[in-house]
Amino acid sequence: MKKSQLVAALALLSSPALAATPPEGVEFQPRRGFFTETDIGVFFTLGGENVYSNAQTYLQLGLGYDLTEKLSLGAHFGLGSSAQNCFAGYLPGTETCALSDNFTMTFLDLTAAYHVKVMDRLYLTPKMVAGYTRLDPAPVDPEAGDPGRALSAPNAGLGFGVEYATGMDHFSVGADLLARYIIGPNITAFSIFPKVKYTF
Fold first, then answer.
1. CA neighbor of 77 nearest in space, from 103, 104, 39
2. Among 17, 81, 137, 140, which lies 20 to 30 A Cα-Cα from 4?
3. Cα–Cα dist 178/158, whole Å
4. pTM
């Protein structure tokens, strides 16, 4: 057999194997396991006398664990504020809020997320959240006593996001939209944020 014919035969035999082999010879698998994430975005509330609040900075820190390739559980600490939105009603004959229309909202939540694969590295992440909220100062119930007191209440909500496993090992990036309802004060809060996730 001529040398040129041998080279051609070897090329034909190896081409199917090469076509099925991903870059670097290893199929990409996103890391799963214990993770932490840092999120910074915007926060606002809906409802109240002003209909919506001014957008404010939102900070969220979280840690969690991927139970399976598709399901993860996490615990998150979130901090935002509602600015210029009155939930206590106006004083009679005025447009002055009966309590502060600026208040801080602190969240301690448990989160369950489901990962829906769109393509290699890219996932949609619908999620559910529930937990504890502290509102300081209390934005509702002006007749309940000290207007400077803080108020605690449960919250529950839904979210939707996207997540992309980057080419840097351990790191994923994404963005989330999260809506929570504060039960009792009846306040709806939204947060929108990009996120950086590190999986160990």
1. 39
2. 17
3. 6
4. 0.81
Using the 8-state DSSP alphabet, how is residue 8 labeled?
A: H
Which residue is it, tokens 């939204």? 190
**What is the distance in angstroms between the CA of the first residue and the CA of the last residue of the chain?**
54
Say what the alpha-carbon torsion angle 133, 135, 136, 139 is, to the nearest 10 degrees. Answer: -170
CB 43 within 8 A of CB 57: yes
Nearest alpha carbon to residue 127 among 92, 168, 156: 156
Q: Render pLDDT for 66-119 as a digit per residue (tens, 0 to 9).
A: 999 899 999 999 999 999 999 999 999 898 999 999 999 999 999 999 999 999
Digit-coded pLDDT (tens) for 48-64: 999 999 999 999 999 99
> pLDDT band at residue 15, thresholds of 50, 70 and 90?
very low
Regarding beta strands 171-182 and 187-199, do their DSSP bridges make them parallel or antiparallel, or are they unpaired?
A: antiparallel
Q: What is the mean pLDDT of the chain?
A: 88
